[in-house]
Specification:
Layout lengths: L1 E3 L2 E7 L1 H10 L8 H6 L3 E4 L5 H21 L14 H7 E6 L2 E3 L4 H10 L1
Antiparallel strand pairs: 1-5, 2-3, 2-4
Length: 118
Amino acid sequence: METLERSVLILKPTKKFLNWVRELDDANSGVTLEDLHSKQTVYLIPPYDDEQEAVEYLWDYCPVVFRHQLGRWCKDAKLFPKDLSWNTFMQWFEIELQPKVVDVNDDAEACDRLGRDG
C-alpha cells in the first residue's frame, strides 16, 4: 500500500447542472441530483498544502474539467452552455477536495491492515 503524490477533486453537480441535463433530452427528465451524485468522476490533482492552492489549480483547468463533465452527458459541444467561466462552473458544481490518495494495489495484506487500522 502506498500513498500517492496526488490529491483528489470531486465535483458534485448542482441543480443548475441537473436542469441542463434534463433539457438535453426527454429521456433525462427523470434524472435526479441523487443520480448525478451517485456517478461522480474523481479527478487526481497535484498534491496541495492548502485548499486555496488546489482551487487555483482547478481555476487553471476549469474549462477542460467543465467540458469533460458536460461531455459525459452530451457529445455535441454546440449544446454546451456558452459561458464556461469560473463563475458558471462554481454555480454548476460543488467542489470537494481530499488531500491524500492511498493505493492499496490489490494487496490483500495491505487491505486487511487498512481495515484494522481504519
